[in-house]
Amino acid sequence: MVELNNNSRRISLKKYPLVICYVLCILLHVIFLLISELILIEPFGTLVTWTPNIAAFIVVSIILKEKRGIRKLLKGWTKWRVNIWSYVIALSSILIAFLSVGIYYLLGGKAPSPDERMYFDISFLPFLLLYPIITGATGEEAGWRGFFLPRLQKRFNPVLASIIIGIIWACWHLPAYIFTPYYEAIPFWIFLPLLTADSVIITWAYNKSKGSLLIASLTHYSLNFSQNLPLLLNLVPLNTTVLIFYLIIHIIYALIVVVLVGSNLSKDSDSAIQTEMKEKMLD
């Protein structure tokens, strides 16, 4: 009787892998963040950014019991032989950042005042370039795009799936808003739609590359980097006006993608999903 109940419980859990993964993701985020911020154990600060991946690894291996489930997720980072346009898409946000700066000045924007300037130590540049690669971008994409996106795209069109991921992605940062002063500079009412727009862009890159987590991570990384670069170069001040302007640019970019590419966000998106389903059937 106990065995039957355990089987029933396992079956019911399998029905809600996305919910379980997200709850687990939030719990791990809070736990690692508390350890990092309150006890000041730095490695846990890095683990915070890996909680979407860790949660996905746990769900596919323990809840869903997928054979080679973790290996399939990790395999996404080995897909580097993709269309050259996938790399162009991945790095496009850096160009958009400088284009945004130009538009900002054309519309009457002003350079940062001496009090608003950020004083950046050039010796910190290698850390700025390399550390985000192994944390934010790479640490999250096996979860958001590797685990959540393919499953959501089976139920919804890619645009709606991207919006859902954008919302849960932004809300995943809420514990950081409580414990990390860095996020105080970006109001959540700006942060939420910004990540939703960015989610559409990353989905486009992911689908175009037929499920490459390397491309998704590179797109995520360049989006983060392009936000910080104009500030570090003191091209624009860090204030609400600039953040709203940056948000508008990214929303326009996402809308242009949807209009030009279509709601499937890539002609190859269907084949990418079908390939994943065939791999599961082979298991």
Tag the structure with descriptive keywords:
283 residues, mainly alpha, 13 helices, 0% strand
Q: How would you summarize this macromolecular structure in one to three sentences?
A:
By secondary structure, the chain is mainly α.
Describe the secondary-structure layout:
Elements: H1 2-14, H2 17-38, H3 42-49, H4 51-63, H5 69-75, H6 84-106, H7 125-153, H8 158-172, H9 174-179, H10 188-208, H11 213-232, H12 240-261, H13 269-282
Helix pairs in contact: 2-3, 2-4, 4-7, 6-10, 6-11, 6-12, 7-8, 7-11, 8-10, 10-11, 10-12
Description:
By secondary structure, the chain is mainly α. It has one domain (75-282). 75% of the residues lie in helices and 0% in strands. It is built from 13 helices and no strands. The protein has helices at residues 2-14, 17-38, 42-49, 51-63, 69-75, 84-106, 125-153, 158-172, 174-179, 188-208, 213-232, 240-261, 269-282. α2 (17-38) packs antiparallel against α3 (42-49), α6 runs antiparallel to α10 and α10 (188-208) packs parallel to α12. The longest helix is centred in the middle third of the chain and has 29 residues, at 125-153. The two termini are 30 Å apart. Mean pLDDT is 84; it is low at 269-274.
Q: What structural category arises from helix and sheet content?
A: mainly alpha
The radius of gyration over CA amounts to 20 Å
Low-confidence stretches: 269-274
How far the N terminus sits from the C terminus, by CA atoms, comes to 30 Å
Taken as a percent bin, the fraction of beta residues is: under 5%
Task: Count helical runs.
Answer: 13
In total, the number of domains comes to: 1
Average the pLDDT over all residues and give the rounded result: 84
Largest sheet: none
What level of helicity do the residues show?
over 70%
How would you describe the oligomerization state of the chains in this entry?
single chain
Instruction: Count the E strands.
Output: 0
Label the overall shape: globular
> What is the H-and-E element order?
HHHHHHHHHHHHH
